[in-house]
Amino acid sequence: MKKLLILGAGTGGTIMANKMRKVLERDEWEITIIDQFKTHYYQPGFLFIPFGFYTKQDVIKSKSDFIPIGVNFIQSKIDKVDGDNNKVILQDGEVLNYDFLVISTGVRIVPEETPGLKDKLWHKNVFDFYTIEGAMALAEFFKTWKGGELVLNIADNPIKCPVAPLEFVMFADAFFIDRGIRDKVNITFVTPMEGAFTKPRASKVLGGMLKEKNINVVPDFYLESVDNDKKVIRSYDEKEVPFDCLVTIPVHMGDSMVKRSGLGDDMNFVLTDKFHLNSTKFDNIFVIGDSANLPTSKAGSVVHFASEVVTENLMCAIEGRPLTAKFDGHSNCYIETGHGMGALIDFNYDTEPLPGSFPFPGIGPFGLLKETRMNHYGKLMFRWMYWHILLKGKEMPIPSEMYMAGKEV
Amino acid sequence: MVQKEYAGKVIELDDNGYFTNPDQWTKEMAKEMAKENGEELTDKHFEVLEFIRKKIKSGESLTIRSIGKSGITDIKGFYKLFPGAPLKKATLYAGVSKPSSCV
Question: Structure pTM?
Answer without folding.
Answer: 0.91
